[in-house]
Design a protein that fits this description.
The complex is a heterodimer. Chain A is mostly helical. Chain A has one domain. Chain A contains 15 helices and two strands. Chain A has a two-stranded antiparallel ribbon. In chain A, strand 1 (96-99) and strand 2 (102-105) form a beta hairpin. Chain A is globular and about 55 Å long. Chain A starts with a helix and ends in a 7-residue tail after the last helix. By secondary structure, chain B is α+β, with helices and mostly antiparallel strands. Chain B has 21 helices and 21 strands. In chain B, helix 14 packs parallel to helix 20. The longest helix of chain B is centred in the first third of the chain and has 40 residues, at 2-41. The radius of gyration of chain B is 36 Å and the shape is elongated. Chain B starts with a helix and ends with a helix. Classes of the chains: A mainly alpha, B alpha+beta. The interface between A and B is large, with 46 and 41 residues.
């Protein structure tokens, strides 16, 4: 027992690549916020807290997550319900829980709870998983998606849905079922468009397909983002030298569009470097997932790292103009505590699951 | 068994994870390709788009060229004054700003009102707005002491267009005023940027409106410079990036003569009229004066509304440029032209005599055309006809003329057309023809109309400019340069403007002798001015005494009839025998030609000859 307590569960590859990413993030944020020291110091506190949380979370045996997955899901949903009823309204959406000077976006917790709960639900089922199990999983996914979607927060809702679907897919969902669901989704798209989407969401999608329609209105963000990235060229304009960023032509530089800042100021080479770090992290997660000690851990590592990947790719595609604009931060770089803490939490779980060896009963 | 199932599960998981991982790689790759498209392939376009976002080019005003007289004395210059200039984008509350600055700089209610109005119109992107022009030395000193209180205002040098002779050169030099279409001269700067133009004139973007300022606008204006500012997304100017300096406009060197113009103004006094003088060697216009006048300094630099209304409503119409636009019957000054016509068409020669009973009777109708002297001049040949200005002689000469031929002869002397190369808004006046009369009055040309032309009365109308041009032509025996105010780069050799085989040098000499006699002989009608000078002068005076004519009623149809009375007119050239200058003078309601207009012409000639 004594030996076990002294051991610190730690993955150097993930730790250092995340450290590099977060450090770069603070550096980019300094430029993106027009050298606003208070924003950067606040973010620094989040990063620091994130690392502490990650290390703490990675210490206990991952079984604790399995045993408490139901409690985690219910707690997340309750928190979300409370936010929905009492949370302050910011920009037409109720997403925040205030704790002292810090506010927390309660939907972030669901990003963790959904894949962990589903992994727990599915890991010991017989393959291929049965219709009932699929149905229950889908109901849970859709329910969580819908609650967040109604806040309204399409970006986070999509990520939550993805995180659940990834686990479902990895745990052996049959191909025929997926084909059928996809056909159903296509058929129901007019219904989704007309009934489920808010007018501003519809407009964003319409803007995406006709980007020159309204250069000073709806298309402004995406046009300015492309101009910022494109004008960066191969080497970029230099730190704090990006005119699109520094003169405020680019919107949301600290959050959704921080990638455009990097593109403008550090050019193609900077972008390449950043993408290599992300790719390295994903590769490491992929390796850890394949070598995890049991099925539950495999599913959770897979689900969480794929969620992280989806989050990353949706943000990137959005700012370079390959997807319609949805509110989605760039992981580990964008300003904001909630998503950062939940990301560190997720990586803490990943590290915990990949470093603890299975205690086999004698 | 358990192990086997676990292995299947693991393989299943692995293959699915690989599928998803490949999708992720593809996604990242798609992003990279898109970034490559934007940053490498599309770099030039996006680079330009980013520059277009942040770069804001404003025009930088150039100083206009200055205008000089023929001796190099300045007529219009750029005079600096010190103005209080504010930066509206730095002023939070206009009213409290005005209250604060009030004790330092005196501001009238209308100053404040005007300022607030402009401030609103020009919105936030404006970098400067003039609050008060032409500060006094005391105001400048007071402001400088307190300038640290006013981070949003400063005193700077601004120019005005000033003439030291604002009243006597008003019509010929013209004035400038603020223009809204300066942007047309530089299409590469968007129109909306012109409101932020960097100014050197207190009155902003100005443009010549009349006179030389208008005619030579392109020459005087120079070319705008460009200053590139960096702006942020809100349109606020952040910093100046670069400047291309403006080029000052070119100066104008004119043929005008300050002293002669002064004489014209002095001797015309406050009478209505005009003086034009031409340098016979070059065709250069030395004097172009119309009376009454107005101050171009006031007009160019902001005249108050009341003063402007007084000028507009003045019955003497000071804005009307009589020298170029006044239409007058030439009266007896036309007689040399008629004589030239008679000789060249073999109707008369210099020896031909008539008996002048003081009137001419039109054979067809018995209508009587009277001379200016009751009883007539007795036996009259052409020489005497010029000296005593015999109407009867020229009535009978004109009676034998063909109107078409006579009209074209008058046109060839510069009447009925614009004669000045660079005059602003010159009028072509009128040489009548039968077609003209038919189209205007719906009546046929009658012989009496031609007879009237013989003494410069009737439908023929000329401007003082045309008269001076005509006098020059007479002085130079038909060879003469096109009149121009500004010194032309290449002075052309005198052109033979008027030429006729049957009007030879001896005819010209006889004509000059006769016109010399008009002033210098004991019988000349303008002999009263003979002793005003020491040199000899040739000329012809005229008086439009239309009231004494029986055919008065014939003119009542002429629309300009109120202008057709009692104008005193003279054309002169001298010094003889080698004339250097020609002058025309018209004085409205001057009564007697030689005695009234004559002295003015002589004084102008004296100034030009420098006597």
């Amino acid at each position: 027992m004594n030996k076990q307590i002294k051991k610190i569960y730690f993955d150097p590859y993930l730790f250092f690549s995340l450290f590099l990413l977060s450090a770069l993030g603070l550096f980019f944020l300094f430029s993106a916020s027009n050298a606003d020291v208070s924003i950067v110091s606040k973010q620094f506190i989040y990063v620091f807290a994130g690392f502490v949380i990650m290390i703490l979370v990675s210490q206990p045996d991952p079984d604790i997550f399995r045993r408490n997955s139901g409690f985690l899901l219910i707690f997340s949903l309750l928190l979300l319900g409370l936010t929905y009823l009492f949370g302050p309204e910011i920009n037409g959406a109720q997403r925040w829980v205030r704790i002292g000077p810090f506010s927390f976006q309660s939907s972030e917790l669901l990003k963790l709870a959904v894949p962990i709960y589903l992994s727990n639900f599915l890991f010991n089922k017989k393959l291929p998983i049965q219709r009932n199990e699929i149905l229950i999983s889908l109901i849970i996914i859709f329910f969580c998606f819908f609650i967040v979607f109604r806040q309204p927060d399409l970006g986070t809702a999509l990520i939550i849905a993805c995180s659940g679907l990834f686990v479902l897919f990895l745990s052996g969902l049959s191909w025929s079922f997926m084909g059928g669901s996809f056909a159903l989704l296509i058929l129901s798209s007019p219904f989704i468009w007309n009934i489920l989407l808010q007018p501003f969401q519809r407009q964003r999608i319409a803007t995406f397909f006709n980007q020159d329609s309204d250069p000073f209105g709806a298309s402004w963000n995406i046009i300015q983002s492309k101009v910022a990235i494109g004008s960066g060229g191969l080497f970029g304009k230099g730190f704090r030298e990006g005119s699109q960023t520094q003169l405020n032509f680019l919107p949301e530089t600290e959050t959704d569009f921080i990638f455009s800042v990097i593109g403008e100021e550090f050019g193609f080479l900077g972008v390449l470097f950043l993408l290599i770090i992300y790719l390295f992290i994903l590769l490491r997660c992929f390796y850890l997932a394949l070598n995890a000690r049991d099925r539950f851990c495999r599913l959770v590592i897979g689900g969480l790292s794929l969620t992280f990947a989806a989050n990353l790719i949706i943000n990137l595609c959005m700012v370079v103009g390959l997807l319609p604009v949805v509110g989605m931060p760039l992981p580990f770089i964008s300003k904001g505590g909630s998503s950062l803490i939940s990301l560190f939490f997720a990586f803490g779980i990943i590290i915990s699951m990949s470093t603890h060896k299975k205690f086999l009963p004698q | 068994m358990i192990f086997e199932e676990r292995q299947i599960e693991k393989n299943n998981f692995s293959s699915r994870a690989i599928i998803l991982f490949v999708i992720i790689i593809l996604g990242l790759f798609a992003v990279l390709v898109q970034v490559f498209t934007l940053q490498i392939s599309g770099y030039n376009d996006y680079q330009l788009a980013a520059l277009k976002n942040k770069n804001y080019t404003v025009p930088v005003q150039a100083l206009r060229g200055e205008i000089f007289d023929r001796n190099g004395k300045v007529l219009i210059k750029n005079e600096p004054t010190f103005d209080l200039i504010t930066q509206p984008n730095l002023i939070d509350d206009i009213d409290s700003f005005l209250d604060e600055i009030q004790p330092v700089i005196f501001l009238s209610e209308s100053d404040k009102f005007q300022y607030k109005k402009l401030q609103k119109e020009k919105a936030y992107a404006n970098k400067e707005l003039v609050l008060k022009k032409d500060l006094s030395a005391a105001e400048i000193a007071r402001f400088n002491v307190r300038s640290f209180n006013f981070q949003n205002a400063f005193i700077a040098k601004r120019y005005r267009r000033i003439s030291d002779y604002p009243n006597i050169f008003s019509h010929v030099l013209g004035y400038t005023s603020r223009t809204e279409d300066a942007y047309k001269s530089m299409p590469e700067i968007p129109r909306s940027h012109w409101k932020d133009a960097e100014l050197v004139y207190a009155h902003g973007l100005i443009k010549g409106r009349t006179g030389l300022e208008e005619i030579y606008e392109d020459h005087l204006r120079g070319s705008y410079g460009e200053r590139v500012y960096e702006i942020n997304a809100m349109g606020k100017l952040v910093q100046s990036l670069s400047i291309t300096k403006p080029l000052k406009g070119s100066d104008l060197h004119t043929n005008l003569d300050i002293e002669a113009q002064k004489s014209a103004a002095k001797f015309l006094g406050n009478r209505r009229g005009a003086v034009v003088a031409i340098d016979l060697d070059s065709g250069g216009i030395n004097v172009l004066y119309s009376s009454p006048t107005y101050s171009i300094n006031q007009l160019s630099n902001g005249m108050n509304e009341d003063d402007f209304q007084i000028l507009i409503n003045d019955p003497d119409k000071p804005f009307f440029n009589r020298a170029l636009k006044g239409r007058y019957p030439p009266a007896s000054t036309i007689k040399p032209a008629i004589g030239m016509y008679g000789v060249s068409k073999n109707i008369v020669n210099w020896d031909f005599e008539i008996k002048d009973p003081g009137f001419f009777t039109l054979p067809e109708t018995g209508r009587v055309f009277r001379g200016w002297r009751k009883g007539g001049h007795g036996k009259v040949n052409m020489h005497k006809a010029f000296l005593v200005s015999s109407n009867t002689y020229f009535f009978s000469l004109a009676y034998q003329a063909d109107i078409e031929e006579l009209s074209s002869h008058l046109t060839s002397l510069g009447f009925g057309q614009k004669v000045c190369l660079d005059c602003f808004d010159e009028d072509q006046a009128l040489v009548p023809t039968p077609e003209w009369k038919y189209s205007i009055m719906n009546a046929g040309w009658v012989k009496g109309d031609t007879v009237n032309l013989g003494v410069g009365q009737g439908y023929l109308l000329v401007t003082p400019m045309q008269l001076a041009n005509y006098a020059s032509l007479l002085a130079k025996k038909g060879a003469f340069n096109e009149p121009a105010i500004v010194k032309q780069e290449k002075v052309k050799k005198s052109l033979k403007i008027w030429q006729d085989n049957k009007f030879n040098d001896s005819d010209w000499n006889k004509l000059h002798q006769a016109l010399l006699g008009v002033i210098e002989s004991d019988y000349g009608t303008a002999r009263s001015i003979r002793d005003l000078k020491k040199f000899q002068v040739a000329g012809k005076s005229g008086t439009a005494e239309l009231v004494s004519l029986d055919s008065k009623e014939a003119y009542q149809e002429v629309r300009t009839s109120e202008l057709l009375r009692d104008h005193s007119i003279i054309i002169v050239f001298g010094p003889m025998p080698n004339p250097k200058y020609a002058v025309s003078v018209v004085i409205e309601n001057g009564e007697s030609g030689g005695a009234v207009a004559g002295p003015v012409a002589i004084e102008v000639l004296k100034s030009l000859i420098n006597e």
